[in-house]
Amino acid sequence: MLTINSINKGIVIDHIKAGHGHYIYEMLDLDKADYSVALIMNASSNKMGRKDIIKIENVIDLDLRKLAFIDETITVNIIEDQKIIKKINVELPDVVEDIIQCKNPRCISTSERNIVHKFELIDKEEKLYKCAYCDQIFDMEE
Fold first, then answer.
1. Could you tell me which residues come within 8 angstroms of residue 3 by beta carbon, excluding any fewer than 6 positions away?
2. Is the pTM of this model over 0.70?
3. What angle do CA 130, 120, 51 make, to 5 degrees?
4. Are 86 and 78 in contact (CB under 8 A)?
5. 24 to each of 19, 55, 63, 91, 135, how far by Cα in Å?
6. What are the pLDDT tens digits along the chain (142 aa)?
7. Residue 108, SS3?
8. Could you write out the DSSP letters of every residue in 41-102?
9. Rounded to whole angstroms, how far apart are CA atoms 16 and 25?
10. Helix (H/G/I), strand (E/B), else coil: 18
11. Which of 3, 10, 36, 74 has the highest CB neighbour count under 10 A?
């Protein structure tokens, strides 16, 4: 049996869809952290069957929009004295910037430097976003 100790102060990113934990780990540059980080993959879950969990023994700034874009089922737990003091449920953001890039080769965001890649949510159920510059559709499921 694998045992991961509780943390005194930090963040637990929970309810990550199985297999998505390493994307978040990389996005947050946790491989470069000088504090304890645990990436738990394929943990048993009554609610989800299998899930990933990230435990961070440090308080860091998280962009909840990026987390929600990767996986809207995530919950973020803020830990102090080994207790959850705040639980945050994320939701798909209405606008995402510099998370994905437009695939349209004629879009200004792909041809010009220093243009922020910006997408707007157009269908929450289907998880569809469109480029703010050229209206190219981005399907999160792809």
1. none
2. yes
3. 95
4. yes
5. 10, 12, 11, 16, 27
6. 566 678 889 999 999 999 989 989 998 889 888 998 999 999 988 888 999 999 999 888 888 888 888 888 899 999 999 999 999 999 999 999 888 899 999 999 988 888 999 999 999 888 899 999 999 999 876 6
7. helix
8. EEEEETTTEEEEEEEESS-----HHHHHHH-TT-EEEEEETTEEEEEEE----SEEESSS--
9. 11
10. coil
11. 74
Q: Identify the pLDDT of residue 99.
A: 85
Six-digit token pair at 86?
């705040």
Mapping DSSP to helix (H, G, I), strand (E, B) and coil, where does residue 130 land? Answer: strand
Which pair of structure tokens corresponds to residue 64? Answer: 């909840």
For 109, the 3-state DSSP assignment is helix
